[in-house]
Design goal:
Layout lengths: L8 H21 L5 H7 L4 H28 L2 H19 L5 H16 L1 H12 L5 H17 L2 H9 L2 H19 L24 H9 L2 H21 L2 H8 L4 H30 L6 H22 L3 H14 L2 H13 L5 H28 L4 H21 L10
Helix pairs in contact: 1-6, 1-7, 1-9, 3-4, 3-5, 3-6, 3-17, 4-5, 4-6, 4-9, 6-7, 6-17, 7-13, 7-16, 8-9, 11-16, 11-17, 11-18, 12-13, 13-14, 13-15, 13-16, 14-15, 14-16, 14-18
């Protein structure tokens, strides 16, 4: 029996893509955990080392809409496999770099290649999970991404125990082999969902027309603002939380790092999986469940952040930010399903690519503004409270969203 034709294939697909998602974030994160080893081997300033990640993020964001269009226009599974193969090859080539300029070029190319993955993967998952499992499947995949992100420390460990090149060589080879295996395991859904109310079936997909269709949709514009603010919120809190613990509670760098990551990652992983499962269960009786649950998640997180940033008791701060870490990912599990509810189905991956671009831009602005406020002696507590206020705005915008046509509860 061909496994790709089995009734369990939609879940096998999610499992296969969880591994790809983990590699996607692991390959981009390991460089940040081996700074000392890299700088010792290839002398560079801190600004240059930071630029290695910045150039990746900029090109990743700006190429995301085009990458999404490629997944809408062509075979989604092939876009995923080719993306994985190219960025894994680039990961392996990173191990051969001998100068800052070579590293910078490779990281820029990785930004392009990795941008092709997320829109295609989430669109493919939604293609297979059109009914009551849509948010659960998406949440599990995002959980795989969180796992990859959390394993970034492996880069520093391998750099210390072997060399900085070793981790890039190993994970590059693993990704290449996995990409070749996926050629036999990954396939597109037969007949991508098409919005027949707005499209002549013979009409070819067009990138600029796709942007026109998306931005002509008021609901998409609201989702764009929500996703952009969500990115800024994440960077403002996640990016500065270790510093807050260290300064506010007079902890060591190691202690602050543990408080800001260990419990945080566990709560986020549980939150994104729970957010998907709850939304699917609730959607059986409420067609707006996938909109209402993330809105509720934002509103629940608000008092958690406020209390955590006001108190001088470490345990209460940990509990408050744990509440935020659990409920904030509800939007991550449901964003592609929401897009599927409100946007033209021909341009799902393109739409998510645009969301990625907006999130990268606004997220980058958010973390920069937080740093600028710090330079002006603004307390991190106030910065976190600004982030909490932004979550209220996100919730109100989600309440205003209206699904396109009638949503069927399956």
């Amino acid at each position: 029996m061909n496994v790709k034709n089995g009734k369990y294939y939609p879940w096998l697909l999610v499992a296969l893509l969880c591994v790809v998602g983990a590699l996607n974030y692991l390959d981009r994160m390991i460089i940040t955990t081996m700074r000392s080893s890299i700088v010792e081997a290839i002398p560079m300033t801190d600004a240059q080392f930071g630029l290695l990640t910045s150039v990746f993020l900029w090109l990743y964001g700006f190429f995301s809409p085009v990458a999404g269009y490629l997944a809408d226009r062509f075979n989604r599974s092939r876009v995923i496999i080719l993306s994985l193969f190219i960025w894994s090859l680039l990961t392996w080539l990173t191990s051969l770099a001998s100068s800052f300029e070579e590293l910078l070029i490779i990281r820029a190319l990785m930004g392009f290649s990795e941008a092709c993955y997320i829109p295609a993967a989430l669109a493919l998952i939604v293609d297979y999970h059109q009914g009551k499992t849509k948010s659960t499947a998406t949440g599990l995949h995002i959980g795989g991404i969180y796992v990859g992100q959390s394993l970034g420390f492996i880069g520093g460990w391998l750099a210390e125990s072997h060399s900085w090149n070793y981790a890039f060589r190993i994970f590059g080879i693993i990704g290449i082999i996995y990409a070749l295996a996926l050629i036999f395991l990954l396939k597109d859904h037969v007949g991508k969902p098409v919005d027949n109310s707005t499209v002549n079936k013979r009409e070819k997909l067009d990138f600029w027309n796709g942007l026109k269709v998306l931005f002509g949709n008021r609901s998409f514009a609201l989702v764009l603002v929500v996703w952009g603010l969500a990115g800024a919120i994440s960077w403002m809190i996640n990016g500065w939380l270790p510093t807050y613990y260290q300064e506010h509670f007079d902890l060591s760098q190691t202690e602050a790092g543990v408080y800001a990551t260990a419990y945080f990652f566990t709560a986020m992983l549980l939150g994104v999986i729970s957010g998907g499962a709850i939304a699917d269960w609730w959607s059986r009786t409420n067609s707006r469940a996938r909109l209402l649950l993330p809105a509720a998640g934002f509103l629940i997180a608000v008092p958690g952040v406020f209390i955590a940033s006001y108190t001088d008791f470490l345990l209460i701060t940990v509990m408050g930010f744990t509440v935020y870490a659990f409920t904030r990912p509800f939007i991550d599990a449901n964003m592609m399903p929401i897009l599927d509810m409100i946007a033209d189905k021909r341009y799902l991956a393109t739409g998510y690519g645009v969301l990625n671009l907006f999130s990268c831009v606004i997220g980058g602005i958010g973390i920069y503004v937080a740093g600028a406020l710090r330079d002006e002696q603004v307390n991190l507590s106030l910065i976190f409270q600004v982030a909490a206020f932004a979550m209220v705005i996100c919730a109100l915008l989600l309440f205003r969203l209206k699904p396109k046509g009638k949503v069927t509860n399956i």
